[in-house]
Each structure stands twice: as C-alpha cells, then as structure tokens.
Design a protein that fits this description.
The protein is 37% helix and 18% strand. Bound molecules: adenosine-5'-triphosphate and magnesium ion (MG).
Length: 419
C-alpha cells in the first residue's frame, strides 16, 4: 500500500482566537524540527500541514509526529484529482488495501470545493456504487454502524482520501506557556510530570539534587538518561538540567533533623533552592512529580508545610493521577526502564522509619533553626552547574568519577553533551 501524503491537523489550536497563528506557527516549527532529517517535504495551508511521504517508512513518520505537542491528529492519505473517476480509482485502492477481513464500511465526503459538481452525499453514494463491484473481497456497506470509514475530502486544489486518524499529543506547542523548573528525581513520577507540563506548552528545565557520593553516581546518570528522552519534546531537542550539589546539605539534615521530619525539611530546602534558581533565571513556576496520597509525605498537610517556604506557583501535573496511570505514560515515553534502575536518590536513601504524615510549619521551623538555612541555600545555588543534554547524546557520567561533580569537572568542555 502506498500512501502519498500525511495530513496533519491542529485540533484544539484552531479554537485559540487571536493566538491561533502564533500557536500554529510554533507547532509547524516543531514538526519541521522532527522531520528535517527525513526525505520528505512539508507544505502548510492555513489550517493544516501536508507532508509528502516519498519512500519513508510510515512507522518512522508516526514516531516523529507523536513527539509534537500542539499536534491534534494526522492521517495517511491518498491524493486524487478533483474528478469522480480518479476519486473512485483511489477509493478502490484504499479500500482493497486497508479493509480488514469481514469488515463493513461507509464513505463520508466533505466537499469544501463548491465547484465540484456533486454534493457531499451524492459523491459518497456515487463512489460507493462504483467501488463495490471492484472490491477484491466481499466487503459490505453499513452506513449506520460501519467498522471502518473512508473519508473523502474535496478541497480546492485536490481530493484527499483516508481511513483512520492517528491521535497526536494534543496540548500546546512547547514554549508558548512560558518556562518552568522541574524537580527531577530520577523516579517514575517527576519525568512524567515534566513531560505533561511540556505537552501543555510549558518549556521545562530540570533541577536535580545530587547527594553523591552519599548516593551512587548512577542515580544522577538516570536523570541524564531521562533528560535525553525529555529532550525529544523540546524545540531544539536539548534538555537543560541544573545539578545541585546536595551532599553537604543532606549530611547536615541527617545530623540535625529528627527522623520524622527528615523528608519535610529536605523538601523545604529543595523548594527554596529551586525558587532561588528560578528567580535567577527569570522562570516563574516550579514543577514536581508529587501525587496526592501516593506516599506518606504527599499529604495536603505536607504540601502545605513544604510550599510555605516558597512564593512561586508550583505545578503538579500528576497530582491526581494514580500510580498505574503514571506508569502507563512512563512506558509510552520509554522512561519507565530508566526510572526503575535500582539506584537511589537523596529522598530514597536512608528513608526515615516513621515519617510524619502531618508535618506542621511550626515544627519544621523549629528543626530548621539548627541549620544555617540561608547559607546552605545560597551556597547550593552558587555551586549549581548546568548540563545541556541533547536527545542523541551518549553521555555516561559513570565513566568519569565517583561523584557527579567530578564527572562534570572532567567533561564540562565536551561540547557534544554539555555546555
Ligand atoms: P518521583 O517518582 O518523581 O521520585 P516520588 O513519588 O518518588 O516521585 P518523592 O521521592 O517523595 O516522590 O518526591 C516527590 C517529588 O519531589 C518528586 O516527584 C520530585 O519532583 C521532587 N524530588 C524528590 N527528590 C528529588 C531530587 N533528588 N532531585 C530533584 N527533585 C526531587
Ligand atoms: Mg522519588
């Protein structure tokens, strides 16, 4: 079966009034970025994009288009001249090649080109009448409850025939919603949350709190590998990750904060650092992978006590998702097998035996009085370093040292994976 083109639709973006053209242009740029290495050509009209397929494999094109946020749906189409006989010829070809055994079908026509001599309904009826004797198997028409539908769109320039629409990511082109800093742990939830924010148009940069050598350097490598996957959804296929050397802070907390408040205080410090960094970068929101009730520390009381130290919107895209829903997305995006590698980050190592589920601000402040919070935060922000991870990078920091910082020092000039 040889299709001629891919027909790409923008879905909800078409409803966006004044911003519509900007959103569409951004989506088109994302499409261009994702197919630029393929032997295809792209043509934009006011409401859709057509991509010639040439000899490119359909799975490859599908895979690329599924990375584009803002893209509503797409179909593989056969193109015919605006002429009934030519349309019938293409319809016979489509039906014979795509209908499944024992299938029933109907034909649905949309005639945008009013100069075409038949109405939409007449076209469907005429084409059906003429294709039936030419079908290779005993397919039946069922206009009420068909298993498959052949769509015929008669436009000014030519006619497009297609069967299914494949769903795109939907949402908005990444970047139109501004920027957010995403607290990326290496677990299952935060990369999914990061993706969901990007899908809705927020360009995310990651921040990771790295406690190596208290935590293994492989734990930071997970974050780097997740960043490579997330980079596929950014406009230039790069994902920025800010590494915060967290070892000293982690040690201080272990020494000075009682077990039930370890996680609470650790999170409050993470949020402070992330907010400081956001301010420095002119970024207006944080993103986390928190999900209500998922673990003891993710209660409303806990959110309340933790976010009390910040004054910045906190987006929690998976707040109300259950674990299975998050895991399903992690699988779809190929993140899951990275997230479950058995290396613990700072929140998973030395887990408190009895974390409080109802931490209070007063108690947290009491324990923090034993720490020089301002200095810990400003030191951490000052020593944070930035890695720019390209989607096709083969960066493996575990080859370069026992700590992430050592690896950074060793390879920071490597322009392929960092800058
Ligand atoms: P995840 O699967 O994302 O690790 P989780 O359900 O394991 O989430 P926690 O480990 O309690 O939950 O962390 C809650 C959130 O805090 C994470 O989703 C992430 O946004 C942030 N976070 C935790 N640890 C780190 C870390 N080391 N670096 C950056 N962010 C972190
Ligand atoms: Mg975690």
């Amino acid at each position: 079966m040889k299709y001629d083109q891919v027909l790409v639709r923008f879905g909800d973006l078409m409803l966006k009034g004044k911003n519509r053209n900007i959103f569409i242009d951004r989506t088109v740029n994302l499409i261009r970025q994702n197919i630029k290495d393929l032997n295809v050509k792209m043509r934009k009209t006011h409401d859709r994009v057509y991509i010639t397929i040439n000899d490119v494999c359909l799975d490859l094109i599908t895979n690329r288009l599924k990375r584009v946020s803002g893209l509503g749906s797409f179909s593989f189409v056969k193109v015919a001249e605006n002429d009934l006989d030519k349309i019938v010829e293409a319809a016979v070809f489509m039906l014979n090649n795509t209908l499944e055994e024992d299938s029933t079908f109907k034909i649905e026509t949309k005639r945008a080109n009013k100069r075409f001599p038949l109405t939409s309904l007449e076209t469907s009826q005429e084409v059906a009448k003429k294709v039936l004797p030419q079908l290779t198997k005993n397919f039946k028409v069922d206009v009420r409850n068909p298993k498959q539908t052949l769509h015929i769109e008669i436009r000014d320039e030519e006619t497009y025939l297609f069967m299914d629409s494949i769903k795109g990511l939907g949402g908005f082109p990444v970047g139109v919603g501004g920027k957010g800093i995403s607290l990326l742990s290496g677990g299952i939830d935060s990369p999914v949350a990061t993706f969901l924010a990007m899908k809705q148009g927020v360009l995310a940069e990651g921040i990771h709190f790295d406690s190596s050598p208290l935590t293994p350097v492989e734990s930071a490598q997970k974050v780097i590998d997740l960043s490579k996957k997330l980079a596929l959804y950014t406009p230039n296929h790069e994902f920025v990750i800010h590494m915060v050397p967290f070892h000293n802070i982690h040690m201080e907390i272990l020494k000075k904060v009682p077990d039930p408040y370890l996680i609470t205080v650790m999170r409050r410090i993470m949020f402070r650092i992330a907010e400081e960094l956001a301010k420095k970068l002119g970024i207006l929101a944080l993103i986390t992978g928190e999900s209500i009730g998922q673990v003891a520390s993710q209660t409303i009381e806990s959110f309340h006590t933790i976010e009390n130290v910040t004054n910045i919107p906190i987006l929690r895209p998976v707040l109300t998702y259950d674990k299975q829903e998050i895991v399903n997305i992690a699988h779809e995006l190929d993140l899951y097998n990275i997230s479950i590698r058995p290396f613990e980050d700072c929140c998973a190592i030395y887990l408190p035996k009895n974390p409080t589920t109802k931490p209070t601000i007063r108690r947290a402040e009491e324990y923090e009085a034993n720490l020089d919070i301002d200095k810990l935060v400003s030191d951490a922000v000052e020593h944070t370093y930035k890695w720019v991870i390209k989607a096709d990078s083969d960066l493996d920091i575990t080859n370069y040292g026992f700590t992430t910082l050592e690896a950074w020092e060793a390879i920071k000039d490597d322009s392929i994976s960092s800058k």
